[in-house]
Fold:
Amino acid sequence: MGRERIKFDLLIHDLKVPLAVMEAGITSLLNRREKYGDITGQQEKVLKRVLRNNKVLKTLVNDALELGKSRQGIVNFSNLRLSSLIEEALVEIFDLTHCNTSEEIRHCLELKALKKILEGKGVLLVIDKGLWGQEVCLDAAKVRQVLRNLLNNALKYRKERVELSVDKRDGYLIFSVKDDGEGIPSTYHEKIFECYFQMDATENGCVRGHGLGLAGVMVLIEDMGGRLFLESGEGKGAKFLVEVPLRANGH
Ligand SMILES: Nc1ncnc2c1ncn2[C@@H]1O[C@H](COP(=O)(O)OP(=O)(O)OP(=O)(O)O)[C@@H](O)[C@H]1O
Ligand SMILES: [Mg+2]
Structure:
């Protein structure tokens, strides 16, 4: 499968998250009135219609994933604070599973407070305070997509804890996403980056996800001129380390 096709598929694949958030929100309004308040019969009809159409869209996204398309790859540089980049990726992730947490992250003003919120969810954020406020020049959309996919996997496969570490060295942004889950045996270290490959796909027949995330992550990192390293062994958790070259600010 060509690189452009993989990137397009990843984009379609990532539509699943906002769609799931919408579905969860509407379902809550319909089913948890003790929490969200009463709705009229007319409002209920409208919400049910939106929910139905949301499901239609979900099916279309899944269909599009099967078909795939090609797209031209371009690296878009911009200057932005590391704090915004990381916070945005975290908000997108928690929107799906813990929307109260994502609200807290959105309104959080200090690194220390953010670390505390995340710790409550078993996520350890390791970053220097000076670096947190620094501006960097990179392709934010691509880096966010990489971060989101690695974090989603780590949260999915962890036992209890996930660690996100961010550093900057010799013109590179270096970040790692580590979990304490079952890990990945070395025989699979290349295979998991292939499209539609999932280690547990054959065991239970019903799989979560599409086995596309890591294939897309690899293409995005290569496009940025970066590198990815995997450290993992059976029963030892997994650590994905990413290096992305930075541009000098303002260029
Ligand atoms: N942190 C991890 N710990 C253990 N196994 C992992 C981890 N990350 C990925 N894998 C293995 O690699 C496979 C491929 O990962 P990938 O992100 O490409 O797909 P997915 O998460 O299964 O689905 P998708 O990302 O499309 O929703 C996973 O199915 C899993 O078997
Ligand atoms: Mg994944």
